[in-house]
Specification:
Blueprint (H helix, E strand, L loop, with lengths): L3 E5 L4 E5 L2 E6 L3 E5 L5 E5 L8 E10 L3 E9 L4 E9 L12 E4 L5 E5 L1
Antiparallel strand pairs: 1-4, 2-3, 2-10, 4-5, 5-9, 6-7, 7-8, 8-9
């Protein structure tokens, strides 16, 4: 088992893409895995899902399971495979089921407000 820790992320978190707020939550989770930077997961119910299009990309993590990916459609561009979700995560990480994580970039920000 990898060294994975999942805890409630304190405070209010937002995800913005192309200047628009895609999600805001007080119920984010912070997943820490080994020496990797922590990742913030947003409850799916707190994200504007109409702006996300599921893609064909799938990856497998030996510790978390199979990840599905989503592209984000903004006014000016489409951010390919910019979000991911473990829709049927492994038993040790079931807390992240129905949550989404995002790849921060020049056009996508995940931040505590």
């Amino acid at each position: 088992m990898s060294d994975i820790t999942i805890r409630k992320a304190e405070g209010t978190w937002v995800v913005r893409a192309g200047g628009a707020v895609l999600g805001e939550t007080k119920n984010a989770l912070e997943l820490s895995e080994g020496s990797l930077a922590p990742v913030i997961y947003f409850p799916r119910k707190d994200v504007a899902m109409p702006f996300l299009d599921k893609t064909d990309r799938v990856t497998t993590c030996p510790h978390k399971g199979e990840a599905s990916y989503y592209s984000i459609v903004t006014k000016s561009t489409t951010l390919e495979n910019a979000a991911w979700s473990y829709e049927d995560p492994k038993a040790d990480v079931t807390k992240i089921k129905d949550y989404l994580a995002f790849y921060p970039s020049e056009t996508l920000a995940v931040e505590r407000v």
